[in-house]
């Protein structure tokens, strides 16, 4: 009895997770964006420039208070930046990734496992909070 049960678990569960293989959603390869796609490169440049803007504006906001950040235009721009960061995280789950063997993978489950194990995923999650969150943490000091 125990042997049959362990064979069932071995056959029906993936070693990378606790979910049965049949429950793992797979995105068809035609919807996976190649990592070397020209538009994806432009998107990455946009995200990098928005991150540089955040890197400059957060210390400026912390130093000089609400001089610029109180204006509706800057608040709308900050919200747009946060939305772009969220879209970037979603795009990373459907962008091909290079696995440990150096082969470009278009398997959505492998892509998500590779992405969530990187430091980029952790920094992307922190970017969702937005600069206002970190500025508000600093203000009591």
Explain the overall architecture.
- This protein has helices at 2-12, 38-64, 72-92, 108-116, 119-128, 130-138; strands at residues 97-98, 104-105.
- With 141 residues, the chain is mainly alpha-helical.
- The protein has a two-stranded antiparallel sheet with strand order 1-2.
- A hairpin with a 5-residue loop joins strand 1 and strand 2 (104-105).
- It is elongated and about 50 Å long.
- Residues 1-14 have low confidence and may be disordered.
Task: Summarize the SSE layout with pairings.
Blueprint: H1 2-12, H2 38-64, H3 72-92, E1 97-98, E2 104-105, H4 108-116, H5 119-128, H6 130-138
Antiparallel strand pairs: 1-2
Largest sheet: 2 strands, antiparallel
Radius of gyration, rounded? 21 Å
Structural class: mainly alpha
Structural domains: how many: 1
> Which residues sit in consecutive blocks of at least 5 with pLDDT less than 50?
1-14
Strand order within the widest sheet? 1-2
Overall shape: it is: elongated
Number of helices: 6
Please tell me the overall pLDDT.
Answer: 79
Spatial separation of the terminal alpha carbons: 63 Å
Order of helices and strands: HHHEEHHH
Number of beta-strand segments: 2
Helix content: 55-70%
- Proportion of residues in β-strands: under 5%
């Amino acid at each position: 009895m125990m042997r049959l049960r362990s064979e069932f678990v071995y056959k029906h569960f993936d070693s990378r997770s606790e979910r049965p293989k049949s429950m793992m959603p797979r995105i068809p390869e035609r919807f996976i964006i190649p990592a070397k796609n020209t538009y994806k490169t432009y998107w990455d440049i946009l995200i990098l420039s928005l991150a540089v803007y955040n890197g400059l504006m957060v210390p400026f906001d912390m130093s000089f208070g609400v001089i610029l950040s109180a204006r509706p235009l800057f608040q709308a721009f900050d919200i747009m930046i946060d939305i772009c960061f969220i879209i970037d995280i979603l795009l990373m789950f459907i962008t091909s990734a290079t696995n440990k063997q150096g082969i470009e993978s278009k398997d959505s489950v492998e892509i998500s496992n590779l992405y969530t194990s990187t430091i980029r995923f952790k920094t992307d999650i922190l970017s969702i909070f937005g600069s206002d969150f970190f500025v508000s943490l600093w203000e009591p000091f």
